[in-house]
Every structure is written in structure tokens, then in C-alpha cells.
Task: structure prediction
Amino acid sequence: MEEKLPEIIFASSDSSTSKRIRHQLDANRIRKLIPRVYTSNFSDDDEVIIDRNKWIIIGHLFPGAILSHRSALEGGPTPDGHIFLTYKQSKNVKYPGLTVHLLSGPSATDQDMDFISDLKISSNGRRYLENLQRVRDRGSVSKALDRSIIEDRLDSICRIRGEDQLNQLREEARILAKELDMEEEFQRLTSIISAILTTHPADELESPLAKARAQGQPYDPHRLALFDILFRELQQTTLPCLLTTQYSEHEGINFAFFDAYFSNYIEGTVFELEEAREIIFERQKVQQRPTDAHDILSTFLIVSNPNEMNQLSQDYESYQNLLQSRHLTIMDMRPEKAPGRFKLKTNRAGMTHFVEPAQVKGTLLKGWEMMQGLSDPLSRAIFQMFLVSEVHPFDDGNGRIARIMMNAELEQAGLQKIMIPTVYREDYLLALQALSRSQRPDPLVKMLIRVQQFSSEISFENWEVAVNDLTRCKAFEESNDARLVLLSEMSKTK
Result:
């Protein structure tokens, strides 16, 4: 039985090893891959073999080289296969699918770390100094990342690990700068860090993310990416224009009741229908649950008030004030939830961690600015609801505020407002998760279009008729027991 050969075999100055390699070549058991490297793999493309074994190959051919510059920060080659190593000489070597850039530079320091196959990798401080070296534009791929990317990474350290970690990185780089003769690069690094920490002006920063932090408005870049996905979906989708039924004052009150009832039910504030009716219309006190009763009543007082729902936000400051004033109204009897004030601790729902407290204002601001680019009222309403829901700016009550802000957009435009019935709760939450976790905006858009149609078909001329229509649509049932049925769908099946 023949010996199974390794995938990668290196040439050797040893005569016996060289003889064995020639024999295996003659026997067609191996083939030449690149100079001084052979392979026993005859099926895969050279690029695939080299990529799979790149560290072993590079480490053998250039022992002691340091994975440096952008390759140290990115953890490997660029997308088009360029990798940068600090070595004892400068040279570019091209292999199938991989270009190795050897850069003559300082040898490894005590802080540089051992890496695979006789390679080393630049320490954290060194890699940032290397990426802030001045680079001549020679029309090819740069050894250093763009400065804005470096600023984003430093901002990320501050955002996720805190200011102490950023100061620790600066101190490490300060010591290394003398050893590596990179004092100029250190001055650039410390200027960036000082600006991010707001101890120096932000004028020289290039990254919008780092500038926002330096100006006291840090934002969550991952949420901004989600907002961009939704924005593009809404811009590319022709949405229906479902004008609102001209409700009488009585009909408007009935709609507001069911909107408030369902919106609180979604959040776990559960009352029997008649009990909720007594709370809202008769101001019945519920001795055992006074705060829950206040939640549903205060929600109703907002959504039933045309003057409140038609308040316009001319700028971000008035928009933020509107958010906070509505939250104060709803949560007024829950002082432990900081009514009207943005959260001080990170909140979560299941596996989703919402925006960090320090980034709430900046993320809301960026989202609000993006929303100004939407002209279609339903698009604005959908975006508005997702913006508040995804930022989750308050300790509690975020879902109710998000739906209020959505319906305010629709009311101001004369479009049909939306209520999310109990039976549609899971559809609603899953659609939010599809965008939040999987970057899929279409389920959210389709879900809200459907539930807007549902809302338009219910008659609110009197209590009994509304309850009957909602019952026929399965609106009061739990989502794991039934599915929402539209009245128009029932008529088609007859």
C-alpha cells in the first residue's frame, strides 16, 4: 500500500529528500505548485490549494516574517488576494490567487505575537501605527487601510470596550513608537484617539462615525445599515395609498379604543375587552392593577386626540421632544421606568440587544435624517415604526411609542391608520426580526400593508358592529391558535 502524501510538500537542500521528490514527480504522484512547493492534489485548482495552505506556505518560504499593516488588522489577505508582511527585504511575489508583499521594516518586538508556521503578527499597538504610515499612491492596493476605516475601528473599541481600552492602546503605541521609529505615526494615532474621546477638536477626523462620537452624537453603525436596507426597499416599492375612512368623532373614538387595547395587549398588558372598556370610557379604577390600567388609558388618550396625533416635527429636536413627551404620558405611573427619559441601561428582547444608551440620540438622529428622504407617507410610517422599535430608546413602552409614531404619520397624511390585533402579534414580531436579524425588509413591508387593509375593513360605527367584525377576523384570538382573516377574503370565498 502506497504511503499517503501530504497535500503540500516543500523542496529541500537535503539530497535524500530531493531524490524522493524527483521520484514522486516521475511517478506522477506529485506536481509542482509554485517554486519550491509541490502538491499531491491533482483535482483542485491551484488557487484553492494555495488559499487553503497559505499560512503554511508563506511561513515556510519567508520564516520570521511578520503579518503586518492592513493584513494584521484584517486577519488575512484582501478580497482580491493581497497580503502584507514585514520582512528583511522588500519584494512582491505573485502566486495563483495570492500576491505576497514583503516590506522591509523593523524586526519583531517583544509585543508582537507568534503566529502559525514560523510567522509572527504585529501587536495591537504596532498594527495601528503601521496603518497610519504615509502611503504613496502607486495605483495598486495599499498596505494601509483608509484612515476613515482606522477611525471607525478605534471608535468601535471605545463603543464596545470603553474609553479605558482606547487609552490602553494609545499607551502601548506610545512605547512602541520609539522602538519602531514611528513617532510621526503615533502623533496621528493620538490625535484621532483624543478627538474620539472629545479631548481634542474633531476637525481632522474623516470617519462620519468617529466624528459623531467626537461631537457627542455617537450612533450605532449596524442599525444605520439596517435603516439603509429598509430605506432602499421602501424607495423601490410601490406602496398602496389607502385613504382613511372619514370617521365621525364617535367612530374615531372606537378605532382609538381598539388601537390602544391591542397595542397594550401585544406588550403583555392584558385585560378582558369589557374590563378595558370600563377603564377607558368609565374611568373605572382597577385596584389590583392601577399601573396597567393607566398604561391602556394613557395610550388611548394619545391616539384618540387629533391635535396630539397631528403634531409635526419640523426638526430633530422637536421630534425627540415629541417622543419623550408621549413616553411620559404613557409611563407616568411607572417612575421606575424613567418616564420621558431615554434609557441608561442596555435593553434586549430575546437574542436581540438594542442600541447602547450612549448611542440612542445619535442613532435616532441619523434615522430621522434618513427618513426625510422618504416622500410617501406610508413609507415614512413604516420607517418611523422600525426606527423607534429598533433603537428601543426607553426602558419600557418602546413598542407602543413606535406604533403611535407610525399612526401619527398616517393620520397627518389622511391615510388609514394601522392596528395590530392580538392574532397578528407573532406575524408582527417575526417581521421585525426578519429585518433586524436577517436584513430582510420585505416581510415587514408586506405585513404592515396587509394589516392596514384589515384595519380599513372594520366598521367602527358602533361598538357591537366593531366587535363582531373583529371577532369574525379572529382578531382577539391568540396567534398560535388562529390566523388573521380579512373581511374581504371572507366575501371572496362565499
Observations:
- Residues 163-180 form the longest helix (18 residues).
